[in-house]
Amino acid sequence: MNLTQTPAIEFRNVSISFDGLQALGNVSFTLPRGEMICITGDSRSGKSVLLRSAIGFLRPDEGEVLINGQEITAMKESELLALRRDAMGMVFQENALFTGQSVYENAAYRLTDRNWPEDETERAVVEVLTFVGLQNELEKQAEELSGGMKRRLEFARALIGWPSIMLFDEPTSGLDPLNARQVLDLIVRARDLHRISSLLVTKALHEIPYLAAHQAREDQTGASVIKIPNQVPGVHVCLLEGGRIAFFGSPLEFAQSSLPAVQHILHPVTEAMHGEIDVADPWRQNRETKASLE
């Protein structure tokens, strides 16, 4: 199989229900290799269900999910485990680090679980910890790290061995703007420098134009993330509403769309305690946080 021509992820008419309530309804999309889909939507729109279906934690009632061209919905659990181990990484919203273990041990977990030789494991750990900026913290215990450093360690553990596909479940949740920007830059660098294909779930809509307007480049002095005049090709927005895809397109098309579902999430109207109306603008929020995100 020629993976360079094979989509990283395909959903074909996927439907999932829980207790008679539809969580995903006839969802179809393709994630080309090296590209990124930002999945957003209101609470209970199906974002997390879609992400967990992509990694095989949930199996659809109808339809097919393909990872690197392999249909996973009928796979045995052992086959799924092997696929996740070799091709996929995931950063969860919840803290998934092993307390009582060092930074090195947490980062090395996926490789020691695969019985990699010790010298190769050490080289891979140092490489990935350098990538996330934790190369000087190898001996620290995970619980000694700050919140932002813990999230970067979660990235290191997911990126070890450089999987071809990454899944991100609200990766900046709970972080201050500076740490959130560092995490977004890691995602950009993984996408652009290592050609990692990614699904990213976010409710923070201002993150989408940031990911679309920044690109990682490498020169003799190292890697840097810079703002570019045009949007990065291969960044897409998938808006879920009631478990169905209400919009799929580029971030620019999303920002300019007049579809009611898009307008609802871009400009939600909420009533304040005293009856005042506040019209939120996540793209304005992106401009207002410019100092911390650039």
Question: Keywords for this structure?
Answer:
Rossmann fold, six-stranded mixed sheet, 36% helix, alpha/beta, 294 residues, disordered C terminus, four-stranded antiparallel sheet
Concise structural overview:
The protein has 294 residues and is an alpha/beta fold.
Figure out the total of helices: 11
Radius of gyration: 19 Å
**Gross CATH architecture of the domain at 9-81 and 166-293:** 3-Layer(aba) Sandwich
The strand order across the widest sheet is 6-7-8-3-11-12
| Quaternary structure type | single chain
- Average predicted local confidence, pLDDT: 89
- Give me the count of strands: 14
Tell me the strand percentage band.
25-35%
The shape, in one word, is globular
Helix-strand pattern = EEEHEEHEHHHEHEHEEEEHHEEHH
Query: Terminal Cα separation, in Å?
Result: 40 Å
According to CATH, what is the topology of the domain at 9-81 and 166-293?
Rossmann fold
- The percent range for helix content is 25-40%
Question: Would you write up a description of this structure?
Answer:
There is one protein chain. The chain has 294 residues and is α/β, with parallel strands linked by helices. The chain has a domain at 9-81 and 166-293: Rossmann fold, CATH 3.40.50.300. Helices cover 36% and strands 27% of the residues. It has a 6-stranded mixed beta sheet with strand order 6-7-8-3-11-12, sandwiched between helices. Strands 2-1-4-5 form a 4-stranded antiparallel beta sheet, with helices on one face. A hairpin with a 2-residue loop joins strand 11 and strand 12. The N and C termini lie far apart (40 Å).
